[in-house]
Amino acid sequence: MSLDEQIKGTTEEVSGKAKEVKGTITDDHEAKAEGKLEGLTGKARKAVDDLKEKAEDVVDDVKEKFEKKD
Fold first, then answer.
1. How far apart are CA 31 and CA 5, in angstroms?
2. Residue 6's closest CA among 46, 38, 44?
3. Which of 10, 47, 56, 60 would you label with 37, given CA atoms 20 to 30 Å apart?
4. Structure confidence by residue, pLDDT tens digits, 3-52
């Protein structure tokens, strides 16, 4: 897991939620939508990083199995 990507994702989620709340309080629908989008972008960033890590683990497992056969 790339700590950098996880931090970026979490930062986007928190920032997005803050913007969303601000938009709700001020009745600013555009700010609310931007905040929601930023939060979802952060979640997506973290999910992609998780998938990348899992794919790397699978590749490593396959490499190990082939190395053991030799």
1. 24
2. 46
3. 56
4. 899 999 999 999 999 999 999 999 999 999 999 999 999 999 999 999 99
| pLDDT of the residue at 65 | 87
The residues, ordered by sequence, that sit 6+ positions from 31 with a Cβ below 8 Å of its Cβ are 19, 20, 22, 23
Tell me, what DSSP letter sits at residue 70? -
- Other C-beta atoms lying within 10 Å of the C-beta of residue 19: 20
What are the tokens at 44?
A: 């997506």
Q: Beta-carbon neighbour count of residue 8 at 10 Å? A: 16
Give the pair of three-digit tokens for residue 46. 């973290």
1: confidence class by pLDDT, cuts 50, 70, 90: low
